[in-house]
Amino acid sequence: MQAKASSTLRITEIFHSLQGEARTAGCPTVFVRLTGCPLRCGYCDTAYAFSGGESRTLDAILEEVAQYAPRFITVTGGEPLAQPGCAALLTALCDLPTAPEVSLETSGALPITGLDARVSVVLDLKTPGSGEVSRNLWENIPELKLADQVKFVLCDRADYEWARLKLETLALAERVGEVLFSPSTGVLTPETLAGWILEDRLPVRMQLQLHKIIWGDRPGV
User: Fold this and answer.
1) Which strands sit side by side in the sheet containing 205-206, from one edge to the other?
2) CA 192 to chain centre
3) Which of 136, 53, 55, 151 is nearest to 103 (CA)?
4) Could you read off the pLDDT of 75-114 as tens digits, one per residue?
5) Judging by beta carbons within 10 Å of its beta carbon (0-12, 13-18, 19+), is residue 99 exposed, middle or buried?
6) What pLDDT, in 10s, does the model give residues 45-60?
7) Which domains does the chain have, with CATH numbers?
């Protein structure tokens, strides 16, 4: 998809940090956080991105990102796909001279069809404990590829059992490269979730939010 130079997106922040989650956790990454989200998950930690932001041209975004000569780029939110220009942004980022690995963090409530095949989609399936389970767009599941990742943020045992059922019935371990189970911070202890995963011998990767361990809840790090 070729983006017009005049294309604009509303941006909350662009920053360079360590990836805190998913397959490239710990890797220096440039984050492009788009403004706006139609969901209101109970455990959301980026509510500051729901509104505000700055309207920026695609060229200006690419110029700032390119200054870091990044190996990894993550487009996040809010919900990035809520902005019509997100798909063009993803393709333009993939085309940067450094040939970065580009990932998209999305709630799974909006279609992922038509995205650049080079993008690794990190699809966050919403559990009952999120308060937004009804927003899962199940038509997205057949669109997933091996380079993609599916994430579950778990609040309690009921969420865990729900996620375990989805893991099996949707054959997620065979469909994507990584299935990620993450405990909701301050709600479910990592030790408890680790015990359940080991007991059931699930083919998943348990993850903690590395950026929170290092920097707490400060935005833009």
Assistant:
1) 54-57, 8-18, 28-34, 72-76, 101-106, 120-125, 149-154, 178-183, 205-206
2) 24
3) 151
4) 999 999 999 999 999 999 999 999 999 999 999 999 999 9
5) exposed
6) 899 999 999 999 999 9
7) 8-215 (3.20.20.70)
